[in-house]
Amino acid sequence: MQQSSARPGSVTTGPIRGSRKVHSAPPGHPQLKVPLREIALDDPLSPTLHLYDTSGPYTEDGAVIDLAAGLPALREGWLAARGFHDFAGSTIVHSVGGWGALIGAIMLGPRLGKYTPDGKSRAIAGHSMPLATIGVFILWLGWFGFNGGSVLSADPGAVSLVLVTTNLAAAAGVVASMLVSWIVQKKPDLSMILNGALAGLVGITAGADCVTPMEAIAIGAIAGAIVVLAVLLIDQKLRIDDPVGAISVHLVCGIFGTLAAGIFGEGKSVVAQLAGIGLTAAFCIPSALVLFGILKATLGIRVDEGEERRGLDIGEHGMEAYGGFQIFTNQ
């Protein structure tokens, strides 16, 4: 077999070029024969796919791509080498979007009429809570693919654990958010309960693969309680207009979920999780400021007052989305 030029045990970067040759797995690896255009797994449940190519340079025995850990160049990134764990994206998906949402909401400003002259928040209700509820249930169902698919294998034990922890966290978020909103707002607010389900899902996403079912319940419950308080804080105290509580769900609970993986996950480090959160914020905040700044200076990020009052359905499409829904004409 042709040998590569890399040092034994080393990994270098570069594209994997196709080869029709079949190579055996090196000693110590599960037997796996891989013609690069016709991958055949001897063990279809293995989470690791090994691609052996003689056109190197890669490792002494060929290129190895671990589907669960990413490309060779990324497998030992700075955070990964220090133990940062974010299984399906509490940070890299949800917190990243949350930082962008926070900067965008601040630069956009509140909707007309959202805050009174003395600074009090006014609720601007959505048109259909049943539709919002259906939407959350669709998201809940989709999370099984999002988290379960992140196992990147058909290992029944690993997939089952992730599906169970994901579902339990969401259910716990529902119960906790209902109780907290009942205590704080004197009524069980359905919008808070729906966000509680999403909070539990976001919170478990970082550690769904490394916590027990009971720990998942605790993570979901804490996230469900946090999201209620975060929504009220951002809306009423910070006076940032976030119509659906996206900042609270994705940013606040994404940060908590990343920390929870370090707190509850066996062998995980809270310090490494904090480093990941901090570095993500350090990248996302200036990036969002630049992007929104460019858009604001060029295309603009807000319609004029007249169009906002008439509604974007009329401004963008020339028609109302809900005919006869309003008690006044928008024409």
What are the key terms here?
2 domains, Ammonium transporter fold, 331 residues, 1% strand, two-stranded antiparallel ribbon, 2 strands, mainly alpha, disordered N terminus, 11 helices, globular
Helices and strands, with pairings:
Blueprint: E1 49-50, E2 64-65, H1 72-75, H2 78-81, H3 90-108, H4 129-149, H5 156-185, H6 190-205, H7 213-237, H8 246-264, H9 270-297, H10 305-310, H11 312-317
Antiparallel strand pairs: 1-2
Helix pairs in contact: 3-8, 3-9, 4-5, 4-6, 5-6, 5-7, 6-7, 6-8, 7-8, 8-9
Task: Give a verbal description of the structure.
With 331 residues, the protein is mainly α. It has two domains: 1-76, no CATH class; 79-300, Ammonium transporter AmtB like domains (Ammonium transporter fold). It has helices spanning 72-75, 78-81, 90-108, 129-149, 156-185, 190-205, 213-237, 246-264, 270-297, 305-310, 312-317, and strands at 49-50, 64-65. A two-stranded antiparallel sheet has the order 1-2. Helix 3 packs parallel to helix 9 (270-297), helix 4 (129-149) packs antiparallel against helix 5 (156-185) and helix 5 (156-185) runs antiparallel to helix 6 (190-205). The longest helix is centred in the middle third of the chain and has 30 residues, at 156-185. It starts with 48 loop residues before the first strand and ends in a 14-residue tail after the last helix. Mean pLDDT is 82; it is low at 1-74.
Major sheet attributes: 2 strands, antiparallel
Question: What structural class is derived from the secondary structure elements?
Answer: mainly alpha
What would CATH call the homologous superfamily of the largest domain? Ammonium transporter AmtB like domains
CATH architectural designation of the largest domain? Orthogonal Bundle
How do the SSEs run, as a string of H and E? EEHHHHHHHHHHH
Give the count of helical stretches. 11
Within the largest sheet, what's the order of strands?
A: 1-2
Total strand segments: 2
Number of domains: 2
